[in-house]
Amino acid sequence: MSFSSDVKAELCRAALSRRCCAQAEAYGVLLYCNQFTGREVRITTESPDFAARLPALFQKAFQIAFDRLPVTGAGKRTFAIRDGDKLSALWTAFGHDPAETLAHHINFAVLEEEHCRTAFFRGAFLAGGSVTDPAKRYHLELATPHLSVSRELRALLLEAGFTPKETTRKSNSVTYFKQSEAIEDFLTAIGAPLAAMQIMNAKAEKDLRGSINRRVNCDAANLDKAVDAAQGQIEAIYQLEARGMLEELPDKLKEAVDLRVAHPELTLSQLAELCDPPVSKSAFNHRLRKLMELARR
């Protein structure tokens, strides 16, 4: 199952307790489903959990049953209502008249309570929503064929403290989030806190992996610099040797020469500890810089 399917499964575990919330959730489903007209309601879904919830949801909200139920074992499950009386009951419940309605709009009067707005968001996501696996990227969207509904949904989300973006894709209007925190907050609000926690965990794992990669890259870069520096120092020593200058060096520089040539793989700190007596890293580095300077001269 996809992450989006898992989210819908979690949402469908929410109890259908209040009739007003059931109607609000069904309202979201209707405005974000495949078709909601004066002639037909058609809802198609691949989620078995949403398919199992739909008959109970419409019974709780409107006391009506679907005229068409999905075929057993079908991948895509389609529900439909074509009975005129049932369709009239749906339109009336939300204060609309199909004969006078040119375009769908959200009736804010039926979503005055916060719990009803949350149920509406849940229904919209169940019918027209999807969310990407957070291990890949962060993206949650709600798609509807009704432009006015999409714009009004954005107004509702802004009022609820969310900041979604909008776009169009083919014949659909899309409201979406791309920030992980916004997706986490939205899923928690509509009843999927476990899915929100998965996103948090995936983000933490990505951050940890990125931190480790940066550390490894940094260590590798530092090692490359150290190797290059050691090679340059040894080349300078060979130049001094070729000129017969090593025997003229002070004892401290001779010690630095011996240690650097004998241990080309060690860091400055390690070489400084091998001095007799041990010296600081900066003091040993100063001796090597002196050798480099003499070689350049």
From TrEMBL:
Coiled coil residues, start to end: none
Residue ranges of domain WhiA LAGLIDADG-like in the record: 118-209
GO MF term list: DNA binding
Keywords recorded for this protein, A-Z: Cell cycle, Cell division, DNA-binding
Protein's UniProt keywords contain Secreted: no
Keyword Cell cycle among UniProt keywords: yes
Pfam families recorded: HTH_WhiA, LAGLIDADG_WhiA
SUPFAM superfamilies, A to Z: Homing endonucleases (SSF55608)
Domain Sporulation regulator WhiA C-terminal: from-to ranges: 212-295
InterPro entries named among the record's database cross-references: Homing_endonucl (IPR027434), Sporulation_regulator_WhiA (IPR003802), Sporulation_regulator_WhiA_C (IPR023054), WhiA_LAGLIDADG_dom (IPR039518)
Family under the similarity heading: Belongs to the WhiA family.
Function text: Involved in cell division and chromosome segregation.
Stored HAMAP family: HTH_type_WhiA
Protein name listed in UniProt: Probable cell division protein WhiA
Primary gene name: whiA
